[in-house]
Design goal:
Layout (H helix, E strand, L loop, with lengths): L10 E5 L7 H16 L8 H23 L3 E9 L2 E8 L20 H8 L2 E7 L2 E8 L18
Antiparallel strand pairs: 1-2, 2-3, 3-5, 4-5
Length: 156
């Protein structure tokens, strides 16, 4: 497998304006472009499909939560650190995110952090200035073994 990291920065940031009308669309276009650059899709690279889907879903939920529970996201960071992809969303809200348990499937909202909790390896938050950053990590694809993609779900 070739090194997709060659020549590409391991950190990308997108600054957003709180209350921006199209913050979610702007943020997700940034995520999609970054994932396209870092993990090219294609039939010859099926191992990239899962990381792209997981990262896009997690980023979408974190940005949507910032839009719903604060004045909107102010910053979106994507980082490749070792084997992990980290997604961080900063907003001006000081209230920490709340993982609702038990999940109520009959409600139209409140499922975002459940999804993040299920898909991400780990997630959390930290105070930043007068607001907070909510972050999550997903595992990039494992390198194929003898040309065969490795299924993470079947590992130990």
């Amino acid at each position: 497998m070739t090194d997709d990291r060659a020549g590409l920065p391991d950190h990308r940031v997108r600054h957003l304006l709180p209350g921006q009308e199209h913050a979610l669309a702007t943020a997700m276009a940034f995520v999609r472009q970054t994932l396209d650059d870092w993990y090219p899709a294609g039939r010859d690279r099926p191992e990239t499909t899962r990381v792209r889907e997981d990262a896009f879903l997690v980023a979408d939920e974190l940005v949507a939560n910032a839009c719903a529970h604060s004045s909107g996201p102010t910053r979106l960071d994507l980082d490749r650190v070792g084997r992990r992809l980290s997604i961080s969303v900063t907003d001006g809200g000081s209230a920490p995110p709340v993982l609702r348990r038990p999940r109520r499937p009959d409600t139209p909202t409140g499922h975002g952090l459940q999804i993040v909790d299920r898909v991400a390896l780990r997630w959390g938050h930290r105070p930043v200035g007068g607001g907070k950053t909510v972050w999550a990590e997903v595992l990039p694809p494992l390198a194929p073994v003898n040309g065969v993609p490795v299924d993470r779900d079947r590992l130990g």
